[in-house]
């Protein structure tokens, strides 16, 4: 009997505490059929119910801010988030997030009434969209180290970057629908041949063209300016950009972005 009374008192105390916290934080209430209203149990505090720190909470919030484009112009990932970002990229969640994007892209593509004149194109970015540089970044802190152009270009020049599986599947499905693919990358002209070869090794065998960055024409210009200008050239030549996919916001912002854009996850670096 004493034990039962103690349990009832504990339950009432828990409900009162939940009510207090919910009112303080404006939480939603749950209305039951018999007229009694209980607040939905509040979210855990960052320190946890036992006062212990819940690891990686701030890093997941940081990644959300990055993907939502609320955190911009950053140079490296936070030092304390190296393990979090690494586990995300090497675990299944990165693949699942990418799959959610590409499946939505394909669903949209299937809904299109294509003209069939060969002028419908889909723009693909290269790095972290079509090809993955994860083997490189795994040895460089998943973005915690400052960008090293020399080291990264040495990796690119190997021409062995694997495809992102979900992007490759989307690419093949788009071709099956009669949509042509165009690659636009921030890689320079000096890496055109190695990039073409890498794309073919990664099974991107059929595409309209590969656009690499003319560093003289676009010297000092942002990626948004560069990619907007190159997309405009396609539209001026009669092409219709029905879709556009990239891992950076600079891939899908600006002008001439296409009928619809899709953003793949990338918490390793930011390009303006």
UniProtKB/TrEMBL annotation:
Name the keywords, alphabetized. Glycoprotein, Signal, Storage protein
Q: Where are the transmembrane segments?
A: none
User: Residue span of the signal peptide, if any?
Assistant: 1-26
Q: Does the keyword Signal apply?
A: yes
SUPFAM superfamilies referenced in this protein's UniProt entry, alphabetically: HAD-like (SSF56784)
For the keyword Secreted, the answer is no
Output the superkingdom of the source species: Eukaryota
Record family assignment: Belongs to the APS1/VSP family.
Cite the NCBIfam families for this sequence.
plant-AP
**Its function?**
May function as somatic storage protein during early seedling development.
Q: Please identify the protein, giving its name as recorded.
A: Acid phosphatase
* Source organism (scientific name): Stylosanthes scabra
């Amino acid at each position: 009997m004493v034990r039962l009374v103690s349990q009832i008192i504990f339950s009432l105390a828990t409900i009162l505490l939940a009510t207090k916290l919910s009112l303080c934080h404006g939480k939603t209430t749950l209305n039951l059929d018999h007229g009694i209203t209980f607040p939905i149990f509040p979210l855990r505090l960052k320190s946890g119910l036992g006062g212990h720190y819940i690891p990686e909470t701030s890093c997941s919030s940081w990644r959300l801010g990055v993907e939502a484009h609320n955190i911009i112009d950053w140079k490296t990932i936070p030092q304390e988030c190296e393990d979090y970002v690494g586990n995300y990229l090497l675990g299944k969640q990165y693949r699942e997030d990418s799959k959610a994007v590409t499946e939505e892209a394909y669903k949209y593509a299937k809904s299109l009434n294509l003209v069939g004149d060969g002028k419908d194109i889909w723009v693909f970015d290269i790095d972290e969209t079509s090809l993955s540089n994860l083997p490189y970044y795994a040895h460089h802190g998943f973005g915690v180290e400052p960008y090293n152009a020399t080291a990264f270009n040495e990796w690119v020049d190997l021409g062995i970057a694997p495809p992102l599986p979900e992007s490759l599947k989307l690419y093949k499905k788009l071709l099956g629908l009669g949509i042509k693919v165009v690659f636009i990358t921030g890689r320079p002209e000096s890496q055109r041949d190695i990039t073409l070869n890498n794309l073919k090794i990664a099974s991107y065998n059929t595409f309209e063209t590969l656009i690499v960055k003319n560093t003289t024409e676009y010297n000092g210009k942002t990626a948004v300016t560069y990619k907007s200008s190159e997309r405009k050239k396609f539209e001026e030549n009669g092409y219709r950009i029905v879709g556009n996919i990239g891992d950076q916001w600079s891939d899908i912002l600006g002008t001439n972005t296409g009928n619809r854009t899709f953003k793949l996850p990338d918490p390793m670096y930011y390009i303006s």
